[in-house]
Specification:
The chain is about 55% helix and about 0% strand. The chain has helices spanning about 30-40, 50-65, 70-85, 95-125, 145-150.
Length: about 150
């Protein structure tokens, strides 16, 4: 354990009730990240792109022209970003879900139509409904309201 150093002389210590930084940070001063963001979001004169977009385009152009140093830097950055982009599926998941829902709906409607046909046969033959026991064309046993609600 190190020995404790003596306190500095009283005259050079902070005075009680006074801040060590009396003027403080000036109002409105900005940090480097804010200044950089503002500069890169500025539009290039005569162009419809930001300075960041122009810089990325220049990097890609230099790499395509064969600048080995730029190409190496670009490939390293792509490798670094690749795991993040690999997690994104190559297709829109909502399209897949919509297609599956269309298949489910088509299957449901086909089954419903078969049930309607079977019910019509049962009614024509005078057999009671297996679910509710009704016979004939009783309006309370009609499936039309149920089908309208589902569709």
């Amino acid at each position: 354990m190190k020995p404790k150093l003596p306190a500095p002389p009283k005259h050079s210590q902070f005075q009680k009730g006074k801040s060590g930084n009396p003027r403080g940070r000036p109002r409105g001063s900005r940090n480097l990240s804010g200044l950089l963001k503002e500069a890169l979001e500025a539009r290039v004169e005569g162009k419809q792109m930001t300075k960041l977009e122009a810089a990325v385009k220049q990097i890609a152009d230099h790499a395509a022209a064969g600048d080995a140093r730029i190409l190496q830097m670009l490939l390293a950055e792509l490798r670094r970003l690749e795991p993040a982009t690999a997690a994104v599926p190559p297709h829109d998941c909502m399209d897949v879900i919509r297609d599956e829902m269309k298949d489910v709906r088509a299957t449901f409607l086909a089954k419903l139509e078969r049930l309607r046909a079977a019910q019509a046969e049962d009614i024509a033959a005078g057999r009671p409904c297996p679910t509710c026991g009704a016979t004939g064309g009783d309006a309370s046993t009609s499936s039309a309201p149920l089908v309208a609600a589902i569709l």
